[in-house]
From TrEMBL:
Matching CDD domains: Delta6-FADS-like (cd03506)
Listed transmembrane segments: 30-50, 56-76, 144-167, 188-205, 211-230
Gene Ontology molecular functions: oxidoreductase activity, acting on paired donors, with oxidation of a pair of donors resulting in the reduction of molecular oxygen to two molecules of water
Keyword presence, Membrane: yes
GO cellular component: membrane
Domain Fatty acid desaturase: 56-300
InterPro entries: FA_desaturase_dom (IPR005804), Fatty_acid_desaturase (IPR012171)
GO biological process, one term: lipid biosynthetic process
Organism name: Metabacillus litoralis
Protein's UniProt name: Acyl-CoA desaturase
Keywords (A to Z) from UniProt: Membrane, Transmembrane, Transmembrane helix
The UniProt record lists the keyword Membrane: yes
Length: 372
């Protein structure tokens, strides 16, 4: 993909083809959120008030975990202003929706709306972008991780999905808290602390065993579901100098009933084209994008996307490639030769790699490349 365009450029081409109603908020989405909230309350009461077989508790945990995740998807939509427009109501409803995942609305808008969306797949400014080979020598943890065999790394990466959203949220809080205006900083802290006060209070009310089924296991399940989507959003796409959603984003396909339950969260390219539009209308946007730029648009079943993630490393090399420095294997990205039905690699020449890396410690990279 040679010619890159900004999301605004694409939006300008598509907008005239869309009915005016798609640019208005859709408050009816809140009915789905209310349903999930009632399910969560019912689950808590059932676990807390009744002595049941642990297997029954586990089934309830699964329902709670899927509800936590779905509430997070709705919270994501609410905080983009596509459900209600009044700032105080948007933040209030967003806080409720993100309560199970313990993320405050001010942090989310700073991290996701203002940083990730504006700088998608920018190697320095996107807080969600995966690292480049240049960063390998500067991060001891990365150096250690990439000494491990690919299979071990892939297993660890997929296992960590059960924790990754919560851990990354904490990292984003630490990264952005000082950037808030001092008069707003206190409210950001409050939005972080209040959910955890609630969950810890619930621990004392229910007791440790029931709390594990009511919150801890559902949180792990919710993390896995949310990260199952997020891990496919951009990680098979290249790093791009221009924020081009058709180049740097991937839409995954899931059964229609899953899209209904998850508020169309699978339509990720469409979301980056129109972040201020309700996901209710993303199927219509997708139809126009595929008609106008069929050779640029990336989509695949979520299962195949996850398999491709397992088979490829998460370290960028030369922008549009992924590298396993331990083996010296280089893989293509979407739009640059990646074929998910036949994932192959080429062997990197260490000397060529070192010449293309700017400001990189040659001794450290050389050690990683040789350590097979």
């Amino acid at each position: 993909m040679k010619d890159l365009h900004s999301f605004a450029w694409y939006a300008k081409q598509i907008s005239p083809k869309l009915p005016k109603k798609v640019f208005k908020p859709v408050p009816s989405r809140l009915w789905g959120g209310l349903a999930y909230l009632l399910i969560v309350v019912a689950g808590f009461l059932t676990i807390g008030l009744f002595q049941l077989h642990p297997f029954i508790y586990l089934l309830i945990s699964f329902v709670l975990g899927t509800s936590f995740a779905a509430m997070g998807f709705l919270g994501h939509e609410i905080l983009h202003g596509t459900v209600v427009r009044k700032p105080w109501l948007r933040d209030f409803l967003g806080a409720i929706a993100f309560w199970p995942l313990s993320i405050g609305p001010k942090l989310w808008r700073k991290w996701h709306n203002l940083s990730h969306h504006v700088n998608t797949q920018h190697e320095e400014h996107d807080p969600d972008a995966w690292p480049t080979l240049e960063r390998l020598s500067k991060t001891k943890l990365l150096n250690w991780i990439y000494h491990l065999p690919h299979g071990v790394r892939a297993f660890g990466s997929f296992a960590s999905l059960t924790l990754m959203f919560t851990l990354h949220s904490a990292r984003m809080f630490a990264a952005y808290i000082k950037e808030f205006n001092p008069k707003h900083r206190r409210s950001v802290w409050v939005q972080l602390i209040l959910p955890w006060v609630f969950w810890i209070t619930l621990l004392f009310i229910m007791g440790p065993m029931k709390w594990v089924f009511a919150f801890l296991i559902p949180l792990l399940i919710a993390n896995a579901i949310v990260m199952g989507y997020i891990s496919t959003n951009h990680r098979l796409n290249p790093i791009t100098e221009i924020n081009d959603p058709l180049a740097n984003s991937l839409t995954v396909t899931v059964p229609k009933w899953v899209d209904v339950l998850h508020f169309n969260f699978s339509y990720h390219t469409e979301h980056h084209l129109f972040p201020g539009m309700s996901s209710k209308y993303y199927p219509l946007v997708k139809k126009h994008v595929k008609n106008m730029w069929p050779d640029r648009y990336h989509e695949m079943p979520i299962g195949k996307a996850l398999v491709a993630l397992w088979k490829t490393p998460r370290l960028y090399y030369d922008g549009n490639q992924l590298i396993d420095p331990r083996e010296g294997h280089v893989y293509s990205t979407l739009g640059h030769g990646l074929d998910i039905s036949n994932i192959t690699f080429r062997k990197v020449n260490k000397d060529d790699a070192l010449e293309r890396i700017i400001k990189l410690s040659k001794s450290k990279v050389g050690q990683v490349l040789k350590d097979k």
